[in-house]
Backbone:
């Protein structure tokens, strides 16, 4: 049996560029890709906190240390500079892999400063 699980998340990153006339994809600071374990050309889901848009694209590497989140191509219609987005990658895991499974999550502060990392989402209280 296999399960599709959250592999990695960049939580509330700010869009720094929205480039309509680009081949497509989402450029993400290379340091964040490495820290999150997201590979270049890997499929990602983007959830726009500010306008509710949800869309699928793939990750490409932006310059390390750039703090860049560039939503490109047709997806540039779904996010503008300054929008806060949640970027998620999902993967298939076997039951054996799930025994020690922990997602990699990066939490962003204003200005795309990395606030902290975690491998668990706190329990939501009533």
Residues:
């Amino acid at each position: 049996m296999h399960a599709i699980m959250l592999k990695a998340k960049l939580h509330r990153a700010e869009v720094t560029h929205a480039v309509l006339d680009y081949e497509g994809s989402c450029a993400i600071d290379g340091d964040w890709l490495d820290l999150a374990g997201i590979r270049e050309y890997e499929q990602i889901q983007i959830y726009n906190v500010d306008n509710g848009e949800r869309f699928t694209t793939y990750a490409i590497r932006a310059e390390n240390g750039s703090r860049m989140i560039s939503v490109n191509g047709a997806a540039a219609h779904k996010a503008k500079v300054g929008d806060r987005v949640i970027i998620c990658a999902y993967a298939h895991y076997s039951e054996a892999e799930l025994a020690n499974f922990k997602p990699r999550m990066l939490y962003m502060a204003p200005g795309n400063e990395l606030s902290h990392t975690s491998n668990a989402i706190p329990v939501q209280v009533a």
Summary: Strands lie at 2-14, 17-19, 25-29, 43-48, 54-62, 69-72, 84-94, 104-109, 113-118. Helices lie at 30-36, 95-98.
